[in-house]
Amino acid sequence: MAGRFPQRPTAPARTAGRTPGPPPRTRSLPLPPGTDLGLTLGPLRRGPADPAHRAARDGSFWRACRTPEGPGTLRVTARDGVAEAQAWGEGAAWLLDRLPALLGAEDDPAAFTPRHKLLAAVHRRRPGLRLVRTGLVLESLIPSILEQKVTTDEAYRAWRLLVRKYGEPAPGPAPEGMHVMPDARAWSLIPSWEWHRAGVDDKRAATVLRVCRVARRMEEAADMDPAGARGRLELIPGVGPWTSAEVVQRSHGAPDEVTTGDYHLPGIVGWALAGDRTADDAAMLDLLAPYEGQRHRAARLILLSGRIPPRRAPRMTPGNIAAL
Predict the structure, then answer these.
(1) What is the Cα–Cα distance from 175 to 68, expressed in whole angstroms?
(2) If you write DSSP's letter for every residue of 130-196 in order, what string do you get?
(3) 303 vs 113, 124, 246, 316, CA distance in Å?
(4) How confident is the model at residue 224 (pLDDT cuts 50, 70, 90)?
């Protein structure tokens, strides 16, 4: 099933001597005082070499994504309290229409009241944090599935390899190497050995294939409330509470959807708020209970604080499925 998005043939590789394309669509909008684009858009980036996201040296942020209207590239810069955006491709108008939500206009940071000294300090130091809302589900769902029960580096590598090989070059003058992720049909046609070469086991690959068969229904979840969206996503075997929370945090900008089932987060929250590095999900949720309605924001601030328990064991050794 091809899903919601239109199919496109693989675009030819861009070359340095290509002729200029049509001019971009543009939009400007005021930003809430102190908005930090790096903090706001950072969760969308899957590692420093993510082919779909790029933070440029000039302070601009680039995003290549597959919208309901087709592939699009977005470039955003902030100057003097104003966001200046340019967009290219079939999805350009869609991206600019949803620019305010992407930059956190629908978020309400004033709803958060710190009740711990650490959170009060981080909240004061990081006033520019806004929760992003993309309005897209698959672009967060598929990489979240790839991140299940593996190291971050393994997941980032798999995403990078698969998007570069089976996606298409980002429209417009995007930085070299940027790609739009494959559409649902292209994901479903990836041969089993290519998943293997990317380090993705059969279980995660099968989950990606299942969500792509019902891609339209998955994307419809963007218009549901966060709880309803999570319920729909979790109907798919292989998509559990950890994955659904990671998705709606990005697709919906959901301030209360805290991640459970994470290998590290309970211990980090427990250590930061109670000095308990052995905290489990239940203990973490008890500690975050005073922030009900804003528990995801509280967890983000804790992660931004850098207060993590000292390591007692060696790092998890990355697997090498391709070598089997």
Answers:
(1) 23
(2) -----S-SHHHHHHHHHTTTS-HHHHHHHHHHHHHHHSEEPSSSPPTT-EEPP-HHHHHT--HHHHH
(3) 17, 15, 15, 20
(4) very high
The reported pLDDT for the residue numbered 39 is: 95
Burial of 312 (0-12, 13-18, 19+ CB in 10 A): exposed
Backbone angles phi, psi at 76, to 5 degrees: -130, 135
Residue 18 reports pLDDT greater than 60: no
Decide if pLDDT at 311 tops 80.
Answer: no
Question: 67 pairs with which residues across the strands?
Answer: 70
The CA–CA distances, whole Å, from 218 to 76, 192, 211 equal 27, 23, 7
Segment 228-272, tens digit of pLDDT: 999 999 999 999 999 999 999 999 999 999 999 999 999 999 999
Identity (one letter) of the amino acid at 116? H
> What integer is the mean pLDDT of 70-80?
96
| pTM, rounded to two decimals | 0.89
Overall size of the chain counted in residues: 324
- Pull the structure tokens for residue 129: 């944090």
Q: Is the pLDDT of residue 177 over 90?
A: yes
* Pick from 234, 13, 58, 269: nearest CA to 144: 234
Per the prediction, the chain carries an average pLDDT of 92
d(CA 58, CA 129): 20
Q: The tokens of 6 are what?
A: 């239109």
Cα gap 189→191, rounded to integer Å: 6
Characterise 321 by phi-psi region: left (phi > 0), alpha (psi -120 to 50), beta (else): alpha
- Whether 141 and 239 have beta carbons less than 8 Å apart is answered as yes
